[in-house]
Structures are given as structure tokens and as C-alpha cells.
Amino acid sequence: MAQFASPSKLPQLPTSIFTTMSQMAREYGALNLSQGFPDFSPDPKLLECAHDAMRKNVHQYAPLGGIFPLRERIAEKIHRCYGATYHPQKEITVTVGATQALFTAISAFVWPGDEVIVLKPAYDCYEPGIIANGGIPVPIQMKGKTYQVDWGEVAQNISPKTRMVIINSPHNPSGAVFSKEDMLQLEKLLQGTDILVLSDEVYEHLVFDGTLHESVSKFPDLAARSLVCASFGKTFHVTGWKMGYCAAPDYLMQEFQKIHEFAVFCVNHPLQHALAAYLKNPEPYMGLSEFFETKRDYFLDGISGSRFQFTPTQGTYFQLLDYSDISEEPDVQMAERLTKEFGIASIPISVFNKDHLDHRQLRFCFAKKEETLANAIEVLQKI
Ligand code: PMP
Ligand code: GLN
């Protein structure tokens, strides 16, 4: 068949590390603590809400921005958690997971030649979105093995071409959580500019040891220039539902929705009803940190005394383990070897770092049944 010249917009794109490691785990029958998804069932009450919704006559297109009751529940949730007010109709859009929210936000605001500051290690969907829209990612490496942002360095990298800064707290893959001081520094350094903030807050309800999630929506000067992206997949253990949302001030949401309209128009209608009903009770998301903190502690207690070093993760459902006392192998090689020889799959961090900086750290997902974690502990203790 004839082929026509159609240069790739993303010529350097490797297969996602999540796909690679999950595939390898399947191939070698390994415990899969790589890709971030729970191996336990969601709350039966949520499934009941989904069953109920399926029985309603809500099988045709939903309104573009999402059904009103769900947007109302989302606005209530944001207000309850962060004290911020978003207008359900004008300032909230239901999306196909956070991934679509992030891509849509980038498409709506990044012009060819614009620079976008990305803090590394960075979740893998930001840079391809920027590049596909003609923008230029400006990567800034977070410092040390606990990944602290040097805001002075961020300030130095701001130029007249900077359109957007992308932040992600709680942070995947490191588990680091921005402090109030971090947010105030960001707020200060953006003062007097037109730079937007794209805030990926998919792990907003997973923060540990009494730490508070500092949403951009808590900081009025930041909120005024920010688009917040969130994921019901992460919050309610249903990553396969691909349901999320974006919240932003009216003037930004108008532009966001212009792209949203032609990317998807609207999102799965019955599941919006299910989520609207389930969200009436705040307990499931308000209790999430405690639920996952117990899992984190079980996992860390289990591997204490092993040859891995770690600092307990502050947020997300990922724990970094440092294997530098065990091997000098590069992390990608180590992750492959642990999968093939020991039967446990993880994610190497260097793939997300600037210039593939390798601190000999692997990311393990502890959103797993106790039985899975117990098996993982047994394996890790032997390495
Ligand atoms: N951002 C981060 C940091 C993530 O880890 C993920 C993976 N869930 C996403 C965005 C995408 O979220 P969703 O699955 O809702 O598209
Ligand atoms: N967010 C998930 C993780 O970090 C991966 C989702 C995906 O496979 N794209 O593991």
C-alpha cells in the first residue's frame, strides 16, 4: 500500500514505561507493583450507584461540560477540602480522566514556540502534549533523592516565552508533596506575569502523616491563573473508568471547553450519574489518606531490615526504594532483572528524570491487597 509523507509529531516517543513493565510482569508471571492501579475492588456502594445509573434512561449524550449534579458535587468537594469556590456550570468540566483534562488544557493554551516549565521527574503525559501542540518543554530537575524544587532555578528559567508551569503534588513518581511554602514561592515568582499554572492533583486525597494537600485553589493569586486536573480513577479505585475533571476560573474554562468540545464533546453519561450519587457522601475520599497510609506502613514495616533504603512516601500510592546498597546496575536494568529473576515488577525513576539522571531508585505501587503486599515483602526481603 502507498505511504504518504506524514512526519511524526512525536518522533522520539518510546513505549510508555508503564506498558513496558506491566507487559513484562505478565510475561514473567511477576507481582506487578509497577503501573499504578489497585488490585482490589472498588467500594460496592460505588458499583451499586453505577448499576442504578445504568438502569436510568441516561444513555445518550451528556451536556458538554458534564451533568449539573456531578459538577455541583465536585464544586462542593473542592469547597469542603480547600475552601475555594468554583461555579459548577462555568468553572468545572467533567473529562475522560485527568489525562484528557491535562491534554486539553495544554492544547487550549500552548501556542507553537511557547515554553512550558516541567518539573522532573515528570509524569509521562505532559511533554508529549506540549510538543504535539508546538510548544517547548523546559525541564527542571527536582533536587536530591527526595525531589525538592529549587524555586530560584524555576525563576531563572522563566522567559518572555514562558506560557505555563506544570506542577504535580502529591508527586508521581517520587511521592513528594509540596508544602505551603512551596506554593507561596510559586505564587510569588509568577506575580506580574501572564503565566498559567496547570496543576495535576490526581493524588490530592492521598497524603500521609498529617500532611495537608496544598491545592492551588487554596491560594487566590495562584487559583486565578490555574487549571486543576483531578481523577476519579485514582480517588475511587476505578482507573479503568477514565473519569476526571478540570476546575478553573471562568475565563480559562471557556477556552478549555472550546478544545474539549472537539476532542470528546462530552463524557460517559451513566457514570456521571453514578459519581454524582456516590459523591453525596464525602467519607470515601475524606478517609482515603488513612486507608492508604495503613497500606504504606504495612509495606514499609514488612521491608524494614531489607537491603533497600527508603524515606516513607509523603503522598500518592507509590513508594521509592533505593537499591544502591544492593547493586550498581542502572535502574532500568535493575527493574527488568527484578521482574525476570525475582518476580517483582517496579518502575525505574530515571526514565522520568532530566537527562535520565539515575539515583538507583525504583517505584513500587502499594495500592494492593494485603496478600499481594505480603508476597512482595517476602520477595524484597530476599534481594
Ligand atoms: N497524572 C498523574 C500524576 C498520574 O499518575 C495519572 C495516572 N492516573 C494521571 C495524571 C492520569 O489520570 P487518569 O487515569 O485519570 O487519566
Ligand atoms: N498513572 C499510572 C502510573 O503512574 C499509569 C497510567 C498509565 O499507564 N498511563 O503508574
How are the secondary structure elements laid out?
Elements: H1 17-27, E1 31-32, H2 44-55, H3 68-82, E2 92-95, H4 97-109, E3 115-120, H5 126-132, E4 136-141, H6 151-156, E5 162-168, H7 180-190, E6 196-200, H8 220-223, E7 226-231, H9 232-235, E8 244-247, H10 250-263, H11 269-278, H12 283-286, H13 288-303, E9 318-322, H14 331-342, E10 344-345, E11 347-348, E12 361-365, H15 370-382
Parallel strand pairs: 1-10, 3-4, 3-5, 5-6, 6-7
Antiparallel strand pairs: 2-8, 7-8, 9-12, 11-12
Helix pairs in contact: 2-11, 3-11, 4-10, 13-15
Describe the protein in words.
With 383 residues, the protein is of the alpha/beta class. The chain has two domains: 17-42 and 286-382, Aspartate Aminotransferase, domain 1 (Alpha-Beta Complex), CATH 3.90.1150.10; 61-282, Aspartate Aminotransferase, domain 2, CATH 3.40.640.10. The protein has helices spanning 17-27, 44-55, 68-82, 97-109, 126-132, 151-156, 180-190, 220-223, 232-235, 250-263, 269-278, 283-286, 288-303, 331-342, 370-382, and strands at residues 31-32, 92-95, 115-120, 136-141, 162-168, 196-200, 226-231, 244-247, 318-322, 344-345, 347-348, 361-365. Helix 13 packs parallel to helix 15. The longest helix has 16 residues, at 288-303. The model has no long low-confidence stretch (mean pLDDT 97). The structure holds 4'-deoxy-4'-aminopyridoxal-5'-phosphate and glutamine (GLN).
